[in-house]
Amino acid sequence: MNPTLLLDLGNTRLKWALLEGEHWRESGACRHVDIPQWIEAMRVRLPASTRRFGVNVAHDRLALELERQLGPIRWLVAEEQCCGVTNGYDEPERLGADRWAALIAAHHLHDGAALVVCCGTATTVDWLEADGRFRGGLILPGLTTMRESLVRATAKLPLAAGEVRLPPTNTRDAIASGCLLAQVGAIEHYYRVMEGTACGAVALVSGGDAEIIAAHLVIPARTVDNLVLRGLAVVAAASTRPTPSHDTRETAP
Ligand SMILES: Nc1ncnc2c1ncn2[C@@H]1O[C@H](COP(=O)(O)OP(=O)(O)O)[C@@H](O)[C@H]1O
Ligand SMILES: CC(C)(COP(=O)(O)O)[C@@H](O)C(=O)NCCC(=O)O
Ligand SMILES: [K+]
């Protein structure tokens, strides 16, 4: 069985996994600045027969560099339909490929309706019906992006670690609490909107800030590691075509 390399190139980090058949052999994450070292270490270990699948929502030059060093990668792009999920976006291909992969994973991991929450550079909150219909979703600044934007836009606010305390009684805790509640508030509000038609929905929460955000949710929720990579694994399992040789380029599996 040929190994499969899965890549989730987000705006802050590259998340990756190495599969042997269906078995999740290894996985990890590295910041953009550390990608060259990661490539060096990975390149020598991958047999030529490795199948490579990815999603990229970061700069194309990073994706091209990964391809140049590792060989062609099948980049998932959102479509009207894939692996049981149908895309409700006005222009389906405009939906972030990472969100598309996370929706595919959610549909395969969970039986009922789901609110698919990816807490990264941005936070996305996507409404998925039990029958696989993606109805639409929110994009808001992620937790760190929110905190950093306050520092950039103000003269006196620090980028300091605060604690979530209600009521917050100092600047640091006020920022930490405000940004966290903005995330939680958006998720819970959208859950109430979808609950009108999708009864018993569960929020599936993933991404770098999943734990801290999920810890404050009062709606039914669970965290899932690497939802985007899990969606890519579903797509890879459904794809029987071999990875193309080094001189061809493909955009979708
Ligand atoms: N070790 C880490 N390095 C960078 N960010 C981290 C780390 N652990 C948690 N985070 C948080 O996770 C966010 C990035 O999450 P991630 O899911 O990797 O995002 P993206 O898919 O946008 O690259 C950061 O903005 C930060 O708030
Ligand atoms: C919303 C996103 C920026 C999230 O990126 P991330 O936080 O995972 O780095 C990404 O999914 C994206 O660029 N989407 C395209 C626009 C859309 O989904 O409507
Ligand atoms: K995200």
TrEMBL record:
Binding-site list for substrate: 89, 96-99, 171
Active site at 98
Q: In which pathway does it act?
A: Cofactor biosynthesis; coenzyme A biosynthesis; CoA from (R)-pantothenate: step 1/5
For whether the record's keyword set contains Amino-acid biosynthesis, the answer is no
Q: A single Pfam family, by name?
A: Pan_kinase
Gene Ontology CC terms: cytoplasm
Which InterPro entries would you find in this protein's record? ATPase_NBD, Type_III_PanK
Q: Which cofactor does it need?
A: NH4(+); K(+)
Signal peptide residues are none
Q: State where the protein is found.
A: Cytoplasm
Membrane-traversing stretches: none
Q: Where does ATP bind?
A: 8-15, 121
Note on cofactor: A monovalent cation. Ammonium or potassium.
What are its GO biological-process terms? coenzyme A biosynthetic process
Q: Which GO terms describe its molecular function?
A: ATP binding; pantothenate kinase activity
Keywords in alphabetical order: ATP-binding, Coenzyme A biosynthesis, Cytoplasm, Kinase, Nucleotide-binding, Potassium, Transferase
Q: Which reaction does it catalyse?
A: (R)-pantothenate + ATP = (R)-4'-phosphopantothenate + ADP + H(+)
As recorded in UniProt, its EC number(s) are: 2.7.1.33
Entry's family note? Belongs to the type III pantothenate kinase family.
What PANTHER family does this protein's entry cite? TYPE III PANTOTHENATE KINASE
Q: How does it assemble?
A: Homodimer.
Task: Write out the function statement from the record.
Answer: Catalyzes the phosphorylation of pantothenate (Pan), the first step in CoA biosynthesis.
Q: What is this protein identified as?
A: Type III pantothenate kinase
